[in-house]
Amino acid sequence: MTIYQKLLSIKKQKQCGFLVLLDPDRKSPKTLARFARMMEKAGADGFLIGSSLLLSSSFEKAVRAVRRAVRVPLIIFPNGSGMLSKSADAVLFTSLLSGRNANLLIGEQVKAAPVIKALGLEPIPTAYILIESGNLTSVCYISNTIPIPRNKPEITKAHALAAEYLGMKLVYLEAGSGAAMPVPAETVREVEKYTRLPVIVGGGITDPSYARKIADAGASFIVIGNVLENDISGKLARTFADAIHFNGDSKKR
């Protein structure tokens, strides 16, 4: 079974999956591995690992340490063609469709493709769509792109549908790390109804009740990052897991 098929299986079983974003710049490889193990015990269905701007030189060590520590999928969430590792299970092969930066639409992908093939990584073609979040996030600054206005869901829907027609496998709606406002639930609902692609939502989700709202809107996966970094007991992660997974339970009743 491929990692993409495993993700679809999680979606089918739980209606909405819980993914934790790991930043290899924030913790040492050993500490990051311990943190990931705790997040898995708290209910995480998988991990994304990456950063908009990687300052550490220990990315490979971090990926390897986390891979040894957990059993659920570990997927690279790259900032470009240089953020790859053979130790991961897969890589989100992203194209920044919401922007018009040619390098992030296709340039980095061309450079990364031969490396991904040589490493034996599973690529998961993903439409990366930035949504206005109320402040300038790292990903918007680094990518030199303008996010889609949060009050224009029709623009987001058109981009997601284009991704489907281009043959991509996932849509990632991103407010950005540290976003003042997360992706609107109504945008998630409209995109989910308009396309057949699984929808990932991340950025600025700090409240489990809002995560539940996003899950109820039809998200296939919710990504939680910064707010969990100081969750030393796993209690907050369990609260997020319960809120996100409860969506599936409620639909079965």
Walkthrough of the structure:
The protein is an alpha/beta fold. It has a single domain, classed as TIM Barrel (Alpha-Beta Barrel), CATH 3.20.20. The chain is built from nine helices and eight strands. It has an eight-stranded parallel beta barrel, surrounded by eight helices. β1, α2 and β2 form a beta-alpha-beta unit. α8 runs parallel beside α9. The longest helix is centred in the middle third of the chain and has 18 residues. It is globular and about 45 Å long. The protein starts with a helix and ends with a helix.
Give a nutshell description of this structure.
With 253 residues, the protein is of the alpha/beta class.
Structural domains: how many: 1
The outline comes out as globular
Spans of at least 5 consecutive residues with low confidence: 248-253
| Helix content class | 40-55%
What is the CATH architecture descriptor? Alpha-Beta Barrel
- Please work out how many helical segments DSSP would assign: 9
Distance between the termini: 29 Å
Strand content bin: 15-25%
CATH topology: TIM Barrel
Largest sheet, order of strands side by side? 1-2-3-4-5-6-7-8
CATH class: Alpha Beta
What is the radius of gyration computed over CA atoms, rounded to a whole number of angstroms?
A: 17 Å
Q: What is the residue-mean pLDDT, rounded to a whole number?
A: 95
Topology pattern, helix = H, strand = E: HEHEHEEHEHHEHEHEH
CATH superfamily name? FMN-linked oxidoreductases
Compute the number of strand runs: 8
Largest sheet: 8 strands, parallel, barrel
Query: Structural class, from helix and strand content?
Result: alpha/beta
